[in-house]
């Protein structure tokens, strides 16, 4: 897999910085142990079958991004 370009890396960093700013403005301190425990509990409560269903749906509709479908390369 090719390494991401500098433009892509800069764009990703900019997006991440925006997420961090929004999180901080919302009043969440992701370093807070209590906050981390709550997030961990929410992640643990996720249903793996829901995730699998979402992945099946994504794969089913991915044909719309296929080069043959769009005529683009």
Shape: flat
Number of strands: 0
Number of helices: 4
Provide the residue-averaged pLDDT.
82
Specify the structural class. mainly alpha
Percent range of helical residues: 55-70%
- Run of helices and strands: HHHH
Brief summary of the model shown:
With 73 residues, the protein is mainly alpha-helical. 68% of the residues lie in helices and 0% in strands.
Describe this structure in words.
With about 70 residues, this protein is mainly α. The protein has one domain (about 5-70). The protein contains 4 helices and no strands. The protein is flat. The mean pLDDT is about 80.
Keywords:
73 residues; mainly alpha; 4 helices; 68% helix; 0% strand
Map the helices and strands.
Blueprint: H1 6-25, H2 33-44, H3 48-61, H4 67-70
